[in-house]
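Give me structure tokens for this 97-residue protein.
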Amino acid sequence: MSFTDKTLQCADCGASFTFSADEQELFQSRGYQNEPKRCPVCRQAKRARNGNVAPRRNMFTVTCSECGKTAEVPFEPRGDRPVYCSDCYRKVRANTR
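Here you go.
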């Protein structure tokens, strides 16, 4: 089945939003029968009100101790231990097991 973008109106804020062909395909693959009633912003707000969204974590920008690339980590580095980007962390962790 071929999908085309649709313009819908949000039931909460009244704004128009696009229900893309990709989103329609995703909805169908998940077995959803109805189109979304809320725009993405109102959907996110509803999830947050219902406790279905994890709070945003503070991320800290660091320089990887191994390769020197810039990376973001979910903790504040103390300076007394090395901090790695995700690629180097996987390598270091694999070597310690």
